[in-house]
Amino acid sequence: MRLLVVAHRDELVGFPAVIPGFDILLTGPGKVLAAHELTRALDRTAYDEVVVVGTAGAVAGAVGPGIHQIAAAVQHDVFDLAGVRGRHISMPERVETGAAGVTIATGDVFVDDADSVALIRSLGAELVDMETFVYIWVAQRMGVPIRVLKAVSDDAQDGATTGWDEAVAACSAALYARIREDYGV
């Protein structure tokens, strides 16, 4: 059995309520909710794989539209004791899924301005979201393989919030098509 994980209910609009071979977990947006809900789910049930789907903003044209598999995640909204962005005082600087793909930056803010995009790009990320770093970190700590698929919903720049609202349904449908193709469901 696999666990399909999504942060925001709108990211599920293209999915049926039941998918054979999958349980579905809606965590809520942001790192704290993501950590709490995924930890609880993995503590209750032994899953063969966590499969995360959702939307992400493209960082300064680093990737084109479509669905991207995530190889690694960094945090863009943390600092170490020396004030270095992207380094947390007690968590790894980078987490990896073990798959080929792109790097995503995670933070508890919706990125929609040029200054934030420049900082995120300096961390080596091509995409940005609000949960992926924590999903990967929790799955690794619980010993469960994880796969993350993100659909580009917007360019992380001015007006991204409006872009996300308009794109999320199409992204959800594309993600479900990818799950059907990859998992035969």
Description of the molecule:
The protein is α/β, with parallel strands linked by helices. 31% of the residues lie in helices and 27% in strands. It has helices at 31-44, 114-122, 132-141, 160-183, and strands at residues 2-6, 22-26, 49-58, 67-75, 94-96, 102-106, 127-129, 146-155. The longest helix is centred in the last third of the chain and has 24 residues, at 160-183.
Secondary-structure blueprint:
Blueprint (H helix, E strand, L loop, with lengths): L1 E5 L15 E5 L4 H14 L4 E10 L8 E9 L18 E3 L5 E5 L7 H9 L4 E3 L2 H10 L4 E10 L4 H24 L2
Helix pairs in contact: 1-3
Relevant terms:
185 residues, alpha/beta, five-stranded mixed barrel, globular
Tell me the distance between the termini.
Answer: 13 Å
Number of strands: 8
Largest sheet: 5 strands, mixed, barrel
Output the number of helix runs.
4
**Overall radius of gyration:** 15 Å
Shape: globular
What percentage of residues falls in helices of 4 or more residues?
Answer: 25-40%
- Give the topology string: H per helix, E per strand: EEHEEEEHEHEH
> Biggest sheet: strands side by side, in what order?
3-7-6-4-8
Q: Report the uncertain regions.
A: none
Beta-strand percentage range: 25-35%
The pLDDT mean sits at: 90
In terms of structural class, how would the helical and strand content be classed?
A: alpha/beta
Please give a quick description of this structure.
Helix content is 31%, strand content 27%. By secondary structure, it is α/β, with parallel strands linked by helices. The chain is globular and about 45 Å long.
